[in-house]
Design a protein that fits this description.
3-stranded antiparallel sheet, binds coenzyme A, Aminopeptidase, 7 strands, alpha+beta, 153 residues
């Protein structure tokens, strides 16, 4: 399946995206959850995300279906923490890189000076994307399983 990348739309999540986002969450497999578990994937969480005031959530759409999801979460601090998910059937086609660059651009426009993230050491695809857009490794989590990365904006 060839897709014209110009047909893809990226935008902030809105209140009435609940069903679209819940449909995406139901596609997240247990294997994905090993590397990607920023929050639960239930209806209550979807509702919270679609009504979020402090944190920033973005979606990448193709023909009104969410194919990518990214976030900048504050956890009460000033430096946003980045996260991303691309639907399985759309991976390895550059969408992760496009959505990461777009979200970083957004962080810059929002006035943040830095973005941080954590990624499992075995998550090679994610690290490729992060390094490509300029994230650098600055340490690891106390359990030694994840890398701490950051990008100065
Ligand atoms: C990480 C993720 C967002 C990347 O999205 P994507 O759309 O596949 O990203 P891209 O296509 O832009 O880039 C992926 C890169 O990884 C490479 N890659 C993928 N699997 C790989 C593997 N097993 N070993 C080495 N490289 C791999 C691809 O070749 C590509 O590199 P290239 O651009 O140099 O060719 C996606 O895999 C995903 O959603 N994973 C599940 C959730 C997750 O892990 N999120 C991150 C949590 S920290």
């Amino acid at each position: 399946m060839r897709i014209n990348k110009r047909d893809v739309v990226i935008r902030e999540i809105e209140q009435n995206d609940i069903n679209l986002l819940y449909a995406l969450f139901q596609e997240v497999t247990d294997e994905d959850k090993r590397f990607f578990h920023p929050h639960p994937f239930d209806k209550k969480t979807v509702t919270k995300i679609c009504n979020s005031k402090g944190d920033h959530y973005y979606i990448m759409l193709l023909d009104n279906k969410i194919i990518g999801y990214s976030m900048l979460r504050l956890f009460g601090y000033e430096i946003p923490s980045f996260g991303i998910y691309i639907c399985k059937q759309f991976r390895n086609r550059g969408y992760g890189t496009i959505l990461t660059k777009w979200t970083i651009g957004k962080a810059k426009r929002l006035g943040y000076k830095k973005v941080i993230l954590k990624t499992y050491k075995e998550n090679i695809a994610a690290q490729k994307v992060y390094k490509k857009v300029g994230f650098v490794v600055v340490g690891e989590t106390p359990d030694g399983k994840q890398l701490n990365m950051e990008l100065k904006l």
